[in-house]
Amino acid sequence: MKKSYLYTLIAVVVVLATALVWLIVLNNRKAQDIQAMSEMMEFEKEQLEEEYEDLAMQYDGYQINISNDSLADLLMQEKQRVQDLLEELRITKTTDGKKIAELKKELATVRAVMKGYVAQIDSLDRQNKQLVKENRQVREQYRDVTQQNETLRQETTRLAEVVSRASMLEVGTMNVITLNKRDRKTGFFNAIQKLQFDFTVLKNITCERGEKVVYMQLRRPDGELMLKSEDNLFHFESADIPYSLKKDFVYEGDEILLTVYWQVEEILQKGLYTADFFIDGNMVGSFPFTLK
Question: What's the start-to-end Cα distance of the chain, in Å?
Answer without folding.
Answer: 182
